[in-house]
Amino acid sequence: MLETAIELAGVRAEQKRIKVELSCDASICARVNAPLLEQAIVNLVDNAVKYSDEGTTVSIEVVQQDRETTIRVKDTGCGIPPEHLARIFERFYVVDKSRSRKLGGTGLGLAIVKHITLVHGGHVGVESAPGRGSTFTLHLPR
Q1: Assigned CATH for 2-141
Q2: Of the four, 53, 111, 112, 120, which is 20 to 30 A from 35 by CA?
Q3: Taking the chain, what is the end-to-end CA distance rounded to the nearest angstrom?
């Protein structure tokens, strides 16, 4: 499922010479709606690629602990100013409207990610700072 998500988001990555790295133990198993979760990961990887500079790396890390599986998508892009972090998962919320028009964003991708994560009984979080990139983490119950 993760490989398919990377493949779907890979066209833009190839155009920008961005490497997408996956770190996931093959033994990890979680009960998920695969097509839905795949869409969430595609949205996160697509955003990471969209807001990253050419020739950089986007990393996806999947870790399973006692009670949850976490999926982290990390980029070294432009980052998100702190005053926007509380609202980025709202439908139609866009941090930079002029940049969104240029890159083709609608403000729905992260709202969809949040909804898919909630449907799975989990939650999504973000750590970000301007100039340092962003890390989005999906927390899913096992």
Answers
A1: 3.30.565.10
A2: 53
A3: 17
